[in-house]
Design a protein that fits this description.
By secondary structure, the chain is of the alpha/beta class. It has one domain: 3-Layer(aba) Sandwich (Rossmann fold). Helix content is 36%, strand content 17%. The structure holds flavin mononucleotide (FMN).
């Protein structure tokens, strides 16, 4: 495994999944391994603020985030994430926000503020129905800033699919091309 996709939609076969898969396909073309987690299929909660992680840098909650943490920590290949979310009421999905909150386990521990595994690059994938490609640039920037500031993740870029329901990825070769290219960049780290 090498490039890990995170589909923040409750739908495992929706627009966000399709775009994340396209980025992963670009990475796979460069010979790196890929894996995807569909947050909508995982039983996990948001952070419960038990603060157990402050002592251990490990989340104390035993749920479907466990395999996610392990995949991120044990990733021995090119370390990269494709983080996808649909826009829900002008922000990331609840699932993606819960996932982000659970990364709290890597911050503010007695070992330091940045315990997220080192060397990760990421791409951000957004899908939404508003027919205005830059409508949610502020959400993309918010997410990128969080990942950079709290987890020292380098953001290589983003891919956006607007008007997603009316005009899906299968009708948008330009966006599919951008996604493949993004995947190749993640695989190569450039
Ligand atoms: C609860 C909900 C809220 C939504 N809010 C917005 C929104 O604020 N702006 C927008 O452009 N699209 C909005 N949408 C449309 C989705 O973002 C869009 O259809 C997205 O591509 C769905 O991704 P998926 O197929 O991966 O689930 C919303 C959809 C739902 C179900």
């Amino acid at each position: 495994m090498s490039v890990i996709g995170i589909n923040g939609s409750p739908r495992s076969s929706g627009a966000t999944a399709a775009l994340v898969y396209e980025v992963l396909a670009g990475a796979a073309e460069c010979g790196v391994g890929t894996r995807i987690f569909h947050l909508g299929e995982m039983a996990f909660s948001g952070c419960t603020a038990c603060m157990g992680c402050r002592e251990t840098a490990r989340c104390a909650i035993d749920d479907d985030m466990r395999p996610m943490y392990e995949a991120i920590e044990r990733n021995a290949g090119r370390r990269a994430l494709v983080i996808g979310t649909p826009i829900y009421f002008d922000h990331v999905s609840a699932q993606l926000k819960a996932w982000l909150d659970r990364l709290y386990a890597y911050t503010y521990t007695k070992f330091g503020e940045r315990m997220f595994p080192k060397g990760y690059d990421a791409a951000i994938v957004l899908t939404f129905d508003w027919d205005k490609a830059d409508a949610y640039r502020c959400v993309e920037e918010w997410l990128a800033d969080r990942l950079r500031a709290y987890h020292a993740i380098r953001i290589l870029g983003s891919v956006t699919l607007c008007n997603a329901t009316a005009s899906p990825l299968s009708d948008r070769p330009d966006i599919a091309h951008q996604a493949r290219e993004m995947g190749r960049r993640l695989a190569l780290g450039s």
